[in-house]
Specification:
The chain has a single domain, classed as 3-Layer(aba) Sandwich (Arginase, Chain A), CATH 3.40.800. Helix 6 runs parallel beside helix 8. With 303 residues, it is α/β, with parallel strands linked by helices. The protein has 9 helices and 7 strands. The protein has a 7-stranded parallel sheet with strand order 1-2-7-6-3-4-5, with helices on both faces. The longest helix has 19 residues.
Length: 303
């Protein structure tokens, strides 16, 4: 058995009840069961963080809104709220930070829910409450004095929240490959939104595994080489796989589990050559049969 990366996980993530919803506790249960069956039983626990630390990426008004909705159990749109929702979202942000800190020892992955890349500075949505990847990256910048950090996002959907947080911050490069916003939530991520440190790559329906990997490698290498980051964060969304078509409208023709291994290899090749820390957080991926295998294939690239 190969050595898996550091994995950050807590059983508390299963306490966020969403009912018959794509983003449900069974996602993490399927992943952790799959990993345990392959001999991996050690999981790192999230850090304890203070609520005020969220203000590095979110407004006080958003934090207060989330606390109120959670306390009252007032669900909103795609987001289910229970009396523990805010606490578990806070724990997911803490897990991202733990993974970011562990990345100084080796590649690390935060197996947390709820996901985060649709949460902006002052808004939430799309199953997301707090922006886990943004919090992990921003905190590491502050603690380690990192001048240039990069986030690559391969979720099916554009990370409008991540883009919102960093759109005017040239110290963070955000690269997102996603299904075209003409027909996919959240309706953002057009090329016209790009600037010197934001690159959106909208993908047409029917994009195949081969085409996807060509576009990913080209854009990732170009952005990485030109920006030369000191830290890389990965928003890992496995809903680009066609098995998620019925759940979240995946229309790409990405069908091979090995595609996620190749994505990981492309990322790891650059990270190793540059000798910089790299961590990832779980975003989308909702088919309980394919999600664990796709994630496992991605992890295997970081031996």
């Amino acid at each position: 058995m190969f050595k898996l990366p550091y994995l950050v996980y807590s059983e508390k993530f299963l306490l966020h009840e969403t009912g018959k919803h794509p983003e449900r506790k069974e996602r993490l249960a399927a992943i952790t069961d799959f990993l345990r069956e392959r001999g991996y039983k050690k999981f790192e626990q999230p850090l304890q963080i203070e609520e005020k630390s969220l203000l590095s990426v979110h407004s006080k008004s958003l934090v207060n809104q989330l606390k109120l909705l959670s306390r009252e159990g007032l669900s909103s749109g795609d987001n289910v709220f229970n009396n523990n929702t805010f606490d578990i979202a806070l724990l997911a942000a803490a897990a991202a930070l733990k993974a970011a800190k562990l990345s100084q020892k080796g590649f690390s992955f935060s197996l947390a829910r709820p996901p985060g890349h649709h949460a902006g500075k002052s808004f939430f949505g799309g199953f997301c409450y707090l922006n886990n990847i943004a919090f992990g990256v921003r905190t590491m910048q502050k603690v380690q004095g990192i001048e240039r950090a990069m986030i690559v996002d391969f979720d099916l959907h554009h990370g409008n929240g991540t883009q919102d947080i960093f759109c005017n911050d040239g110290s963070v490069f955000y690269l997102s490959l996603h299904q075209h916003p003409r027909f996919t939530f959240p309706g953002t991520g057009f090329e016209r939104e790009n600037n010197r440190h934001i690159r959106n790559v909208p993908l047409e329906s029917g994009t195949t595994d081969k085409e996807y990997l060509q576009l990913f490698e080209k854009n990732f290498n170009e952005c990485f080489d030109s920006f030369q980051p000191e830290l890389l964060g990965v928003s890992a969304g496995f809903d680009i796989h066609s098995a998620d078509a019925a759940l979240v409208g995946a229309a790409l023709a990405v069908n091979r589990h090995e595609t996620f291994h190749k994505i990981g290899e492309i990322i790891n090749g650059k990270v190793e050559n540059a000798a910089i820390p790299c961590f990832a957080v779980l975003e989308g991926g909702y088919n309980l049969r394919t999600l664990p295998l796709n994630l496992f294939n991605f992890l295997k690239a970081f031996k």
